[in-house]
């Protein structure tokens, strides 16, 4: 099993099925409708106004990694754009989550590279501070360590301990199967009250 197996299940199903999943509370949203990502966290700290750490992380990342960037919540510059998104695609990086802004939103969406960010800013950055790569970071009150599992979609960003992946995936798949069965029964004319046993045994 890999983190990518979580992608079709979604954060709502995973969050209900596995309460130990940690919810990132910061207002970090998908850059475009339909964006979703799942992968293994490569966290880094990047000094606001400088993006050298991002360039270094892209070069160091492995296929399936998600770059998780502590940019201090800054919206004063956009350290990530179209060129870096293409570089990520070419290296098999699964996506970017940044507590900060990005640029080239339409171009990134056109590449199909999933980006979750706090906002947008076209202002460029310097390239002199190496930051810190592969260290735990805190986003939205959640500590994210190297190797943690990240699942993000339009509803939420969730973080799992790496060791929880298999049982969490099994629990989410079981919940998805139950929900599919409920939807079949709804299509046959039953009510949610009767399916959930909330009608006291009467229709």
TrEMBL record:
Domain of life of the source: Bacteria
Listed Pfam families: RraA-like
SUPFAM superfamilies, per the entry: RraA-like
Co-factor(s): a divalent metal cation
Signal peptide limits: none
Gene3D superfamilies named among the record's database cross-references: Ribonuclease E inhibitor RraA/RraA-like (3.50.30.40)
CDD domains tied to this protein: RraA_family
Protein name as catalogued: Putative 4-hydroxy-4-methyl-2-oxoglutarate aldolase
Record organism: Tabrizicola soli
Phylogenetic classification of the source organism: Bacteria, Pseudomonadati, Pseudomonadota, Alphaproteobacteria, Rhodobacterales
